[in-house]
Amino acid sequence: MSRIQLLSDQLVNQIAAGEVVERPASALKELLENSLDAGADNVGVELVAGGTKLIKVIDDGIGIEHEDLALALHRHATSKIRDFDDLQKVATLGFRGEGLASIASVSRLTLTSRFNGAAHAWRIESDHGRLHEAEPAALAVGTTIEVHDLYYQTPARRKFLKSDGTEFAHCEDMVKRLALANPDKQFTLVHNGRANLRVMRGDVIKRCAALLGDEFAQTAVQVEESAGPLRLWGLAGSPTLSKSSRDAQYFFVNGRFVRDKVIAHALREAYRDVLHHDRHAAYCLFLELDPEGVDVNVHPTKIEVRFRESQAIYGFMLRSLTKALASTKAGQVPAGVDPETGEIIAPAAPTYAAGTPQTSGYQQQPWRQQHMAIPVVQEPLAMYDRMFSDLKREPGQAAVTPSYAPAEFGATVLSGGNPRPLPVGTRAFMPATDEDGIPPLGFAMAQLHGVYILTQAAEGLIVVDMHAAHERVVYEKLKNALDLDNMPSQPMLIPHLFSADRFEVATVEDNREALAQLGFDLSVQSPTQIAIRGIPMLLKDADAVELARSVIKDIREVGASQMLTGRRNELLSTMACHGSVRANRSLTIPEMNALLREMEATERSGQCNHGRPTWFRLSMNDLDKLFMRGQ
User: Fold this and answer.
1) pLDDT, tens digit (0-9, with 9 covering 90-100), for 515-549
2) What percent of the chain has pLDDT over 70?
3) Residue 513 backbone class (left: φ over 0; alpha: ψ -120 to 50; beta: rest)
4) Which of 443, 486, 390, 462 lies closest to 592 in space, CA to CA?
5) How far is CA 583 from CA 96, 296, 448, 463, in A?
6) Residue (of 15, 35, 10, 5) closest to 187 by Cα position
7) More confident residue, 362 or 169
8) How far apart are CA 296 and CA 31, in angstroms?
9) Helices (H), 121-199
10) CA atoms within 13 A on the CB side of 436
11) Do 517 and 488 form a contact (C-beta atoms < 8 A)?
12) Bridge-based pairing state of the strands 42-48 and 186-191
């Protein structure tokens, strides 16, 4: 075995390059981070052959002084930290001072820079670690770095590179990450002489619309939460626009793109209640905290971080995202995004001056459900006047019974799919309406094939999946009741008996308290029979035997304690599915309207328990396009 010896600086740099410069995208990341740390407002990137032949980064930052040019290409030479205290609270993207040196050791690198206020620029070249003397150069402002023939003299490493198209895709994704993290900067990407990407300065919504798509920016939930030194903000994608992969997941800690297990788990848990099966959420979120609370020096490429108080971060993330996603309710109209400016557009309601003639076009008419002579249409209007008229009256104004109200009709609300009288003295929840009194989900017009509810809203036509919608409503009510330890039970007038095997009988005997907590009153009648004496009030119209069997099966498989804690939502989801209105069930107009109002008042009602959308909107513009009106 040979003796221990010190390695040359060039070999050390090449070893470091194996960790830091994994592929052209890694080298590009180091160069772009240096530009952003230098305060650049405009960053241009030019690539040839996916970055294997040329990586050129042009910025308008403060530049590098003449005396520091050669030093910038040495290992562990940096202007960003001075001592260990600085390392404990890194606030810049780069700090180790080994990126440029590593890149220069495996390529031909040219560094040209003009320091702010200097008479002219200077250039220095490096050929696989061998530095040349600095010489004067022409450059208006900032710094330009050119990296030629990456890994040209290290064929063993070069053969691991993929095709030019694949390497360019990685480079483009790297530019997108930094562009999303810095919406106030302008980025340009050119590949093989062709411009592939150009994003102008703006806000985060405009940047997300440009890079992640207008649909994402229009439907995403805006997040803005703070707790002490922690702040979480950005856009959380709508669950209905979920992806089959994690390609559209961007999370930044103090402006740095990271992948962290704590954060990833919090995000998955927040979306678990509204995401469909194996789909993945899309988001662009930013976490800001004290630099001393996060260690970014734990990974060669700085893509992983370690939080000092990871449990606090996890709890804050989970609460903030759950709160943001819970605020999404059916019928909410997503704010539009101007495709040119990226700004949110809130269309103003039409106004008319006194005496001004109105055109007959529907686009200029105030949205209002017209009074019709058909009794089936008058009925829901009468019901809602009875339910909500006291909320709409001015103080001291007497109640007015509408002329179109059937005298024998009483207010009803939907419960488990069937109408029931509204108790005397009960103040019904009044959903938010527009200035014309139209609720967000509009008024029901008809039922299609016993599956979908068709409603007329201010913006056009809305189609509601009645089973999915009612399933979410029941599910949220079950969660609230269990959280408050107040799950009401509906006693059975005549107990339901059903045959059971020994495992089911043993499960009921061993878990009577847990079943009672869920609203079930089950007793063992014989070694082969179980009696159902009570079921949850919210599920009183469900098939009692089928519901009881399902709950017993779940408890037997995972245990009562686990089912009421970690698997609680799965159990309640199963119960809600059994207690919801089924397809091919005919609903009356009042029942449909009651379900719509429940949806408007229920959290997360835009998706069912399995993450499927519960409603869909066709605006008047969409319908016009289908019929080619105005073309």
Assistant:
1) 888 889 999 999 899 999 999 888 887 888 888 88
2) 76
3) alpha
4) 443
5) 62, 53, 10, 15
6) 35
7) 169
8) 18
9) 155-158, 164-181
10) 16
11) no
12) parallel
Structural tokens at position 162: 């993929």
Burial class of residue 426 in the structure, from the number of CB atoms within 10 Å of its CB (0-12 exposed, 13-18 middle, 19+ buried): exposed
Mapped onto helix, strand or coil, the DSSP state of residue 41 is coil
In what order do the strands lie in the sheet containing 460-465?
A: 443-448, 452-457, 460-465, 615-619
How deeply is 559 buried, as exposed, middle or buried, from its count of CB atoms within 10 A (0-12, 13-18, 19+)?
middle
DSSP character at residue 201: S
116-141 tens-digit pLDDT: 989 999 999 999 878 888 999 999 99
Terminal CA-to-CA distance of the chain, rounded, Å?
A: 84
The residue with tokens 């599956």 is 451
Give the CA distances from residue 179 to residues 43, 268, 424, 580, in Å, rounded to whole numbers and listed in that order: 10, 25, 59, 46
Q: How far apart are CA 32 and CA 53, in angstroms?
A: 18
Sign of CA dihedral 617, 318, 210, 212: negative
| CA atoms in the 13 A half-sphere facing the CB of 333 | 22
Q: How far is CA 444 from CA 389, 470, 591, in A?
A: 19, 15, 9
Instruction: With beta carbons less than 8 A apart as the criterion, state whether 28 and 169 touch.
Output: no
| 66 neighbors 134 (Cβ within 8 angstroms) | yes
Rounded CA separation 65/67 (Å): 6
